[in-house]
Protease inhibitor I42 family protein (Streptomyces telluris), 164 residues
Amino acid sequence: MIRVKKKTSLALARIAGLAVLVPLAAGCGGGTDRSPLGTVYQDRPPAYERGRPKPLDRVEGPLEVLRGGRFSIAMRENISARQTWNVSGSGPDEAVVRPQGTSTHQTAREKEAAGAGYTKYFTFEAAGPGTTTIVLANRCGTDPARGCYSATLPRTVTYRVSVR
């Protein structure tokens, strides 16, 4: 708390208070995420319904991103459940979206549990205006040569991305 001894100091106290609040407000909201992952879009597979097969290929989006922004798609990966994801084919149109790499995160609880999965982040930068698709393929659902292949596993998730 700032104490004021004279009336003339009141104006200075208000200015000092604003000087403290402005930098705090600048870090709140604002719309530009400065984290290495940027805005994170968590994959949400459809819930299981008895008698109805899970879709092997899904289309999601569109993800709306501002030019110059960074964003990540978070996929649950679990080798024991035969879900291992990679960007498929030639990747997205790099004039619109540029890949920035992948990273993983495993919670303390997941680290303790045998066979637990983790989250894999596919990070991209919005390079220029336009639309493109990012296709993520489950290696165990798309490659019969792999020892983990099964025709009933999810194969692809296609994210439609629009950069403004």
Summary: The longest helix spans residues 7-26. Helices lie at 7-26, 108-112, 139-142. The first strand starts at residue 39 and ends at 42. Residues 1-32 have pLDDT under 50 and may be disordered.
